[in-house]
Model the fold of this input.
Amino acid sequence: MGKRRLLLGNEAMARGLVENGCRMATSYPGTPASEILSAVAQFKLAEKLAMHVQWAVNEKIALEIAYAGCMTGLRTAVSMKQVGLNVASDPFMSAAYMGVKGGFIVISADDPGPHSSQAEQDSRMMAMMAKVPVLDPDSPRQAKEMIGAAYALSEAFRTPVMLRPTTRVCHSRQDIEVLPVAAAAGIEAKFDRDPARWAATPKFRHQLHLELEEKLAAIAAYAPTAPVRLNPEASARKAVVAAGVSAAHAREILQELGIWKKVALYQVRQPFPLHIAFIEHLLGAYRDILVLEETTGVIEMQLADRRRVKGKQSGTVPRVGELTPERIQALLGDFAGIRTRAVAVAGAPGRRPTLCAGCPHRASFFAIKKAAPRGIYTSDIGCYTLGMNLGAVDTVLCMGAAITQAAGFYHAFRRAKKPPDIVATIGDSTFFHAGVPALIDAVVQRVKFTLVILDNRTTGMTGNQPTPASGFGAIGEPLEAVDLESLVRGCGVTYCRTGDPYRLQDFIALMREAVVCGRKNGPAVIISRHPCILDRARKGERSAFVAVEISDRCDGCGYCVKHFECPALVHHTENKDHRRTTIDSALCAGCGVCLDVCPKGAIQIKQNR
Amino acid sequence: MASSKRQQLLISGVGGQGVLFVTRLLAEAAIAKGLPVFTCETHGMAQRGGTVVSHLKVGDFHSPLVRAGQADGLLVLKSENLAQHGAFLKPGGWVVANAGSKETYDVGGTVFAIEADRLAQETGNVKSINLVVLGFALSVAEKMKGKAEQLFCTLADIERTVKNSFNDQPKQLSSFLNAIRSGYDAPA
Done:
């Protein structure tokens, strides 16, 4: 009997990996999946596990490294967020054909809502497209159990297996039994040369595809992952089929509404391939069927005869947004033919997120707007997306697109009488992830724009993971560091300068020079370097606190609040005749950057009285 | 009977206030008492100063989320959040809110206000608003008449949890305990 510990869903999956003898784990951080690899790293450190754990430069690289590991017979895993799987889709599709030797799990975390993503895409559709089986856990506890099930499935059919948790599984905590780590010793890496498989040409790929189809047919009859009936005691002509956290909601709500025995409840654990015998039973035994799943109707689509099926395809279940318990309560009530008290969470808009007080990105954005006031500002994925609050972010598409979209705008406006200045912003981690090929393309095509690499020495948004420039790895072990300036110059850029945005006046002057250069000569790159204050606080590092105050010169014009938007600057407008701005000392980080922001010079160093 | 206790709470605030920390303390206290526990948290971009909410369910549950109209109690670290999260409260439930005592709210339950910003400042740690509110909730819930309204844990349980987690950081530990105590001792 193991000890019960409070584990985050992501930690539970990490625990599942080490308990099941995973020997290589790789990832690129992304909400809601980031903590999986961090937790594996912590277990490795605490229990001195013989395994390779790494943050990779991007998801494609992470998947390829872990996949090669499984080709040697080791159990391996890669984790990422759903849009990360888009980046890794090339090796993912191909790996499905070649199959695995040691067990290989691809964890792709979805984000219905979306809470912290640019799309609500359903990774199970990617599994379907790749022809890879996928498991859909309903809770942290089940997610941990499914790691073992996924390795067994992977090794039984020599196929990669996807585990698809959603935000509510990743970011829930539950008391979970923690077991000792499996003694993975004894399995040594061994590579059996087999070019017809591992380097298959199209002729052999045809054969591999035939084998893949045979595997899928067998997996659709594999008992350990078959759907389960949660309420055998119910005798009913109506059935609810649910997967993932929707199944957990449905289980609780059916009981609370007193209709537990009125409708049959099935939980699908493997949404693709859906078990054939289950499909036949379901369509044969029930008059009405309701399917609850996130985010697309993947289970529903596999029910060939949908005349009696209600779900996303039929329009009964909303196709957009999270299937919240409130929505599920209404759907179950309607389906069972009972009246439920309409419940809704008030639609009051919450407080919007903002860059932290003292965030160096805020200073960079302020300088960019000074240097190119009527520019087009392309940006990217990270904390700095919040630069839109300052009016310094016009576009965000996907990882790396700040640079390629800048190029697109440049080409589009090339024949315009007065082309706009274009300033792209990208974080250091995002630049390494997908910005490098984009910058090479911009150099080759002589794209006239300015690129600001916001180098805060960390992957900030996802919880301060190291970047390739950090010089250390997932457990803090020393690694090589890539020099950002050399990399930028290696891409062919001739104008590359580094500045500290905290020295705001100097930095604005540098930005002005770069914008002129970018407009005239092609890619001009500024590396805006100042460490993330959250990361520094986490490491216990401190710099001098510059206490500021607002003098009587403040006329409450609101310039600082609008253009600098620091949460510690509070604008009071209640009294129309006496508008003013004050400093919230509980929030102020003491960066002192705002001293150079007020056009009236009303922000000053605090006087000792 | 402790094991049959079922309780659903919501902890609401903005990123940086320590909503996750309070949730964690309550969940660890539940585990220490041998109770099953489920929480659901806000991570990612919202943690940068945006609205953050945690769900906490103690007892036999399957779903990690509290449904609207089902929460026994709300801990609100920023009073403006009541507009957004008040609907989670069940009829007759209780709210402890970091708010001026004169503000009025329409949430279908009883609101107990505490000036946690001021109390946190007085304890010398402006970042301990979350623990002041937690301490206040422990004292408010203790005085409830109905068994259902009473919290699954007591001040002593929470103090024990904090001590277990921060034994090796005596300065932090005493600051945390002071903040909890100052909320607990505040008049309801």
